[in-house]
């Protein structure tokens, strides 16, 4: 029987068992730079091996299992650096994995059907991903380097005019349009045959949307409040 319920993850649970229940946790491990050959290790053992705080890992893992856990015990500067590394790795996943996969499915569908509506899908997604790349590049080249410098700086470090509030103003919602494209495929775009290819495209869009939603939540609810605290402590320090 297919199991739809997901386990609320705790430190003493077997990581391999959790992956079997929810393969999406493989993406979590990839963003943390952890090989998914986890043997019989528990979550806490895996975290110890990779120098990741257990509360931080549990928080992110439970997001991938569909829960919205209470954000607590995530406050150290090391935790912030791990979060930034996680987000930067997620950017690589979007750029080099999901985008090429999705645009590949769209081009294949276009070649096999010669349907004008598929041309519209290609244009919509290409323009959308240009926006995503702008968002990711801004984070990689401006926001994240500032956050890292802020954490590592001392009182004699040069000041900067950039701040977390400026980042908040620039921060955009990059996951909504994926939902829009899924709706187009479900409700409006009619393509004869190619059911397998359309299903693969839809699944890939769903995976991208899912990870982007978690990405945005981590940034807005976890990273930015922590950076704001560091900014305030530096100003008052």
Number of helices: 9
Domain count: the total is 2
First-last Cα distance: 58 Å
Q: Label the overall shape.
A: globular
Radius of gyration: 20 Å
The count of β-strands is 0
Instruction: Outline the biggest β-sheet.
Output: none
Helical coverage, percent range: over 70%
User: What are the segments in which pLDDT stays under 50 over at least 5 consecutive residues?
Assistant: none
**Average pLDDT over all residues:** 87
Helix/strand/pairing category: mainly alpha
Proportion of residues in extended strands: under 5%
Helix/strand order, N-terminal first: HHHHHHHHH
Describe what you observe in this structure.
The protein has 237 residues and is mainly α. The chain folds into 2 domains: 74 residues, SP0561-like; 160 residues, no CATH class. It has 9 helices and no strands. α8 packs antiparallel against α9. The chain is globular and about 60 Å long. The termini are far apart. The mean pLDDT is 87.
In brief:
By secondary structure, this protein is mainly alpha-helical. Helices cover 70% and strands 0% of the residues.
Topology, pairings included?
Blueprint: H1 15-21, H2 25-31, H3 43-49, H4 54-64, H5 77-113, H6 116-152, H7 164-170, H8 176-187, H9 195-236
Q: What tags apply to this protein structure?
A:
mainly alpha; SP0561-like; 70% helix; 237 residues
